Automatic annotation (TrEMBL):
Belongs to the sulfatase-modifying factor family. The keyword Calcium applies. This is Formylglycine-generating enzyme. The lineage of its organism: Eukaryota, Metazoa, Chordata, Craniata, Vertebrata. Pathway: Protein modification; sulfatase oxidation. It comes from Scomber scombrus.
Length: 369
């Protein structure tokens, strides 16, 4: 199984190398073997097993149902302060926009072609779901995340303690800075010797796709489609790279928690953070949404494909099935040389059961919650 996994990862590594060299702004100092993107796709070994997808999908449906039932039962006895823990939402007025781009930073990710998409009005959390919010969900439902069940999760090497690093023997071949860390989960973002006591207002991390769906269901919300997410990211601007425009740092200001310095060796933390930041630490976009790019990657409800119709679409939901889910927005690990994915049109993928130290989510709903 381990062998199979490594072979699989090696293949991914080769593909990534091609993908990322497309996105990379030629970086002559790129260290050997570091060509794949730091904030890219991760898979648990199990996800490579044939047929695992359908099984996962049915389990996920059950999970969502169960937790929304719990939510409904609790709704009648909901306490005011429990409600206050839920994110504030803003209404995103529906409309038409050009999804994707004709000038893809990473063409192999399926950023193009641009296509006319209409989305109906919806409400979106103004922030990534925080540790505090996820904790209230776990307190109320006794929910156990997939990383807790598996017993490990992927953590970026650069933020691990020496003690934890010394206990690890395995790494992701294509991206050696990703280490599967025993005991890493949302409560222990860098393994057992870490905690979230001082990070309750940071995005919850190490949540799988099913974990994210379960949380959203509990709040009577759901994950955004990729189209909803991208429409929201653009904040009403047309044909811009970022939620705020085309300049990464207008007037020298940082607008998102990203990586400054050399990836993966040195993060200068010029934007104030080398890891996650408290949500809403950077300016909101035109729709009042924070951290749409940077800080934590965000799960969407869509299955991954790189093939898109050029025909006009109405509330597209992505392919009916797949092996990976789409994530959007990039994270605090993204740097132009390795992971130029902190753009609204950028996208990446993870197997739904994977979790990592830079991946979170936010929820949407049809009605005000
Ligand atoms: C949480 O971690 C901090 C150090 O980051 C430590 O001082 C503190 O004792 C830890 N708290 C718990 C409850 O483990
Ligand atoms: Ca940063
Ligand atoms: Ca984000």
């Amino acid at each position: 199984m381990v062998l199979r996994c490594l072979v699989w990862l090696f293949i991914i590594g080769c593909v990534s190398k091609v993908l990322c060299s497309c996105g990379a702004q030629s970086e002559p100092t790129a260290p050997q073997g570091a060509a794949s993107c730091g904030c890219e796709k991760l898979k648990r070994a199990a996800a490579a097993v044939d047929g695992a997808e359908e099984q996962t999908a049915s389990v996920l449906t059950d999970t969502a149902g169960k937790y929304s039932r719990v939510a409904n039962e609790r709704a009648s006895q909901a306490q005011g302060d429990e409600r206050e823990l839920h994110s504030q939402m803003v209404q995103i007025s529906g409309g038409e926009f050009l999804m994707g781009t004709d000038n893809p930073g990473i063409p192999a990710d399926g950023e193009g072609p641009p296509r006319l998409v209409h989305v109906d009005s919806f409400y979106m959390d103004i922030q990534e779901v925080t540790n505090r919010q996820f904790q209230s969900f776990v307190h109320a439902t006794a929910y156990v995340t997939e990383a807790e069940k598996f017993g490990d999760s992927f953590v970026f090497e650069g933020i691990l303690s020496e003690t934890v690093k010394s206990q690890i023997t395995q790494a992701v071949a294509a991206a050696p800075w990703w280490l599967p860390v025993k005991g890493a989960n949302w409560r222990h973002p860098e393994g057992l010797d870490s905690n979230i006591t001082d990070r309750l207002d940071h995005p919850v991390l190490h949540v799988s796709w099913a974990d994210a769906v379960a949380y959203c269901s509990w709040t009577n919300k759901k994950l955004p489609t990729e189209a909803e997410w991208e429409y929201a990211c653009r904040g009403g601007l047309k044909d811009r790279l970022y939620p705020w425009g085309n300049k990464l740092n207008p007037k020298g200001q940082h607008y998102a928690n990203l990586w400054q310095g050399d990836f993966p060796n040195h993060n200068t933390g010029e934007d104030g953070y080398v890891k996650s930041s408290p949500v809403m630490s950077f300016p909101a976009n035109g729709f009042g949404l924070y951290d749409m790019v940077g800080n934590a990657w965000e799960w969407t409800s869509d299955w991954w494909t790189v093939h898109h119709t050029t025909e006009q679409q109405d509330n597209p939901k992505g392919p009916p099935s797949g092996t990976d889910k789409v994530k959007k927005g990039g994270s605090y690990m993204c740097h132009k040389s390795y992971c130029y994915r902190y753009r609204c049109a950028a996208r990446s993928q993870n197997s739904p059961d994977s979790s990592a130290s830079n991946l979170g989510f936010r929820c949407v709903s049809r009605e005000q919650r």
